[in-house]
Amino acid sequence: MKKTIFKNIVTITAVSIIITGFLSGFFITNQLTKNTKQTVQKEAHTLANILNHDINYLNQELVIDTRITLIEKNGTVIYDTLKTSSENHLDRPEIVSAINNGQGESMRYSDTLKEKMYYYAIQLDNDSILRLAMQTSSLVKIMPIIIIYTSIIIICVIIIAAFIAKKAASNIVQPINNINLNNPSTDNIYPELQPLIANLQLHNKLRKEFSANVSHELKTPLTSISGYAEIMTNGIAKPEDNKIFASKIYQASQNLIQKINDIIKISKLDENQISLEIETINYHDLITNCLEKLDKFILDKSIHIVYTPKNIYGDCIKYVMEDILYNLIQNAIKYNKQNGTVFIYLSQINDNIIIKIKDTGIGIDDSDIERIYERFYRADTSHSSNIEGSGLGLAIVKHGINLHQGTIKCKSKINQETTFTITLPTHLKS
Ligand code: ADP
User: Is pLDDT above 70 for 211?
Assistant: First the structure.
């Protein structure tokens, strides 16, 4: 964290300094050039005035930074403070402009002085041309100065940033380290961390509810087992009733095993502790396997199964998909009426596999439909009908469907029918 804060401070400051350096260089150069132009023009006009009255003024020793050149109308140089150039000046743009318009200017690199120069020329009353020139500041020229100062400032910033980062890191981290994970509170915490605290609070609430529900769900069958076993141990039951009690103990223990298995499954799904091996399977095989496993339930309730076999292939995590279909078909049987019907429709539309499981059972109230996928949620109808269950089946189904990037919908008419429709992509994106 200290490293990140340090890196951020140094990067932001270095980038700001570099940008500021270059922009200042650019604006300063512009301003200096503007100043140079104004100075040269002012000096040129003053000198032109003097020369119009006294053309010999240039013969005296002049102390001036500006290069002065006097050129005849035919381009011959008659005077130059540098006394270096004697070539004809008629090709210079400022001279041409001065001959045509009375004055002219130009900015260019001077071969004589090896500098970028500003030239300003004025036509005198005797038609000769007075030209003044001065070197200008260029960005390239002041760049080394900018780089030196920028580097010094960056080194200072790195040293200061190291101190600030150390202090800032411990200040930022302290409230986070102080969060009590078992009882997170929003007091003295950054507003940005409020969603995290809300998540932790929800997580804790769900964890507590889950533990309470698990204890409650396991207690019920265990109490039955213990009660029947006690009666048998004390010899209160008639010997002919022992078989009935033993069978009740067996049923309760089966129920207990089922609940424990469901709890283990949902915990594994929660902790992503499951293998996500994807294979291409025939959905028809999965459905027939489930029906075979549920054969006893189907016979006990004399349920009619309506299913037209179809070979439809798709990608899935096989044992998760088996669980999904088993839970949905088992519910369609469990919550059905005696002699009821379960319809299973398997189809493929474009890139989606659609499976509908419809039953003619007790139905689900509209107010319950939204909640049936919650853990341990059981609609009142199932309680009042004394149907065994953990309330975890549809939570496992929903989790499994999400893993398969699919959707599940439920439609129901109380006491008439319930249809679960699942839509799954044929090919899974890994
Ligand atoms: P369980 O069946 O173990 O109670 P589930 O999670 O599978 O748990 O289902 C949650 C609740 O949804 C059930 O208790 C029941 O009230 C309702 N339910 C699920 N499927 C059906 C169905 N096909 N018909 C009527 N009610 C259903």
Answer: yes
Q: What is the pTM of this model?
A: 0.61
Cβ(362) – ligand 1 distance below 6 Å:
yes
Q: Whose CA is nearest to atom 7 of ligand 1?
A: 393
What pLDDT sits at residue 355?
A: 98
Q: 325, 286 in Cβ contact below 8 A?
A: yes
Q: Please say whether the beta carbons of 407 and 323 come within 8 A.
A: no
Best residue for ligand 1 mutational test, from 213, 258, 378 (most atoms within 8 Å of Cβ): 378
Local structure of 69: helix, strand or coil? strand
Plot region of 156 (φ>0 → left; ψ -120 to 50 → alpha; else → beta): alpha
pLDDT in tens, 239-263: 888 889 999 999 999 989 988 999 9
In ligand 1, the atom with minimum distance to the C-alpha of 396 is: 6
Which helix (H) or strand (E) segment is 313 a member of?
A: strand 313-316
Helix, strand, coil % in the chain, rounded to nearest 5 = 55, 20, 25
User: Do the Cβ atoms of 121 and 104 come closer than 8 Å?
Assistant: yes
The answer, yes or no, to whether any atom of ligand 1 lies below 6 A from the CB of 360, is no
